[in-house]
Each structure stands twice: as C-alpha cells, then as structure tokens.
Amino acid sequence: MARARDRVEAILEDLSRRYLPSGDLHEGETALAKLVAETDDPFRVLISTVLSQRTRDEMTERASAQLFAKYATPSEIAGARTEDLERLIRPVGFYRQKARQIGNVSRVILERHGGAVPRSYEALLDLPQVGPKTANCVLVYGFGEPRIPTDTHVHRVSNRLGLARTKAPEATERVLMRVVPKAWWLHVNELFIRFGKDICRPVGPRCESCSFTAFCRHYRTVVAKRGTRAARERTRRDRAAG
Ligand code: SF4
C-alpha cells in the first residue's frame, strides 16, 4: 500500500501534464467533463450518466443534447411520454430501458426530494438506477465534491499499474480512496479514462508510448514475458533455418 501511495502522485502528475495541463476539470474531454463545461446542473449529470452506461461518449453526448433541448428538469422528464423520451435518446444503447429509467428516477427526485438531486452519497444510492459509479459522477461533476467515480477504464488502469488488486470497480474505488491523496480525487476519473482509451487500452495497450513500464504490473507480468517468448521463438526459428 505504501508503495502504491508513493507511486500514485507521480502517475497523476504525468497524466495531468498530458491530458489536463490547466488542471481545470472543465477543460476535460470525457462526455461528462464536456457536459459540465456547459452546465453544472447535477440533474443533467445524473441523467447523462444513466444514458452513458454501456454507450460510447459521442452517442451519450448526442442523446443528452437532444433530450435536454426538449426536457431539462425532473418534472419535465417525469411528465414526458415514454415514447417521446425513447425517440430523443435513441442514439444510446438500450434506449427503451433507459427511457423508462430516466422517467422513474425523475419521478422519485420530484416525490422524495422536491425536485432537487440529493447531495449525499447514501441518498443518491437510494435513487433507482443509481449505483456507486453514477452517485460518484453526480458528486464530482454535479456538485464538485471530491470522490472517485470508477468505471471499467479506471478499474483496469488501477489494476494494471498495481495501485489496486481487485476484481470489481466498486472494490477498486475503495482502494483508490485510500491510496490517492484527496487533492487528486476530482481528477482521477478524467485522467484514467483518457489514458485508458488513448494508451492503456483494454486490448493491445500501447506500452511503447507509456511512461510507466518500469513499474507497471501488467507490463512486467504479461507484456514483457510475451516479448521474451517471442524473442526465444525467433531465435529457435533462426537456428532451425541456419
Ligand atoms: S505499460 Fe502498458 S499496460 Fe502498463 S500502464 Fe502502460 S500502457 Fe498500460
């Protein structure tokens, strides 16, 4: 754990220089960071996060823009016809299911919270369709509260780099909250997602362009060994041919 703590600041400083040189989250490039550049409305952050599940950023951005152009508040979405919501959010995957979900969550926000998105983690988790990642996204991007939203990119990058040894994003989030200094919490999601899409990709990570090979657990245990095996195989073939 101590080694992970020593390492994490160097990693975040490096990624920050690469992806967020101003240090301003409003200049981020993930779908949520872009949305926050336009509005700090926690309700829109919540709805966009629900729409973003299992969907590419570009599709989330299109669906959110179409939806909010017509319905932008809990009462408007709760009062909208489901077929109309489906039509507006059609670019995202599972749009029929998500149309029902955003209608439900809007109704609960109206009935239990007077139309305002609650600001506590526990109250957010009590809403339908809100799990730990969505609750943290709302706290970070909607309220500017320091939390660490952990999706599959954040989970994969954290485990490859040896910051966590976990099987699921929820467990990774808890480990990251112990090893990452609080001053960095707001930035982890944006930085790890960008790094995870750009370099540390799920399949075929671009390790040759990465600054962390010296201590990356995945590189040491998988990539470097594969390289050694390939070199041995080449030598064996050369000898057989010669
Ligand atoms: S060395 Fe490769 S696997 Fe490790 S963090 Fe960098 S890109 Fe990812």
What can you tell me about this protein's structure?
The protein is an all-alpha fold and 242 residues long. The protein has 2 domains: 2-198, Hypothetical protein, domain 2 (Endonuclease III, domain 1, Orthogonal Bundle); 207-241, no CATH class. Helices cover 66% and strands 0% of the residues. It contains 13 helices and no strands. Helix 6 packs across helix 7, helix 10 (152-160) packs across helix 11 (169-179) and helix 10 packs across helix 12 (185-198). The longest helix is centred in the C-terminal third of the chain and has 25 residues, at 217-241. The model has no long low-confidence stretch (mean pLDDT 89). Bound molecules: iron/sulfur cluster (SF4). Residues 160-161, 199-200, 205-207, 210, 212-213, 216, 218-219, 223 line the site of iron/sulfur cluster.
In short:
The chain is 66% helix and 0% strand. It is an all-alpha fold and 242 residues long.
Total domain count: 2
Distance between the termini: 50 Å
Instruction: Provide the gyration radius in Å.
Output: 21 Å
Give helix % range.
55-70%
Sheet-strand content, in percent, reads under 5%
Number of H- or I-type helical stretches:
13
Shape: elongated
Low-confidence stretches: none
- Which ligands does the model contain, each kind named once? iron/sulfur cluster
Report the average pLDDT across residues.
Answer: 89
Q: Write the CATH homologous superfamily of the largest domain.
A: Hypothetical protein, domain 2
Number of DSSP strand runs: 0
Secondary structure class reads: mainly alpha
- In CATH's first tier, which class of the largest domain applies? Mainly Alpha
Order of helices and strands: HHHHHHHHHHHHH
* CATH fold annotation of the largest domain: Endonuclease III, domain 1
What would CATH call the architecture of the largest domain?
Answer: Orthogonal Bundle
Largest sheet entry: none
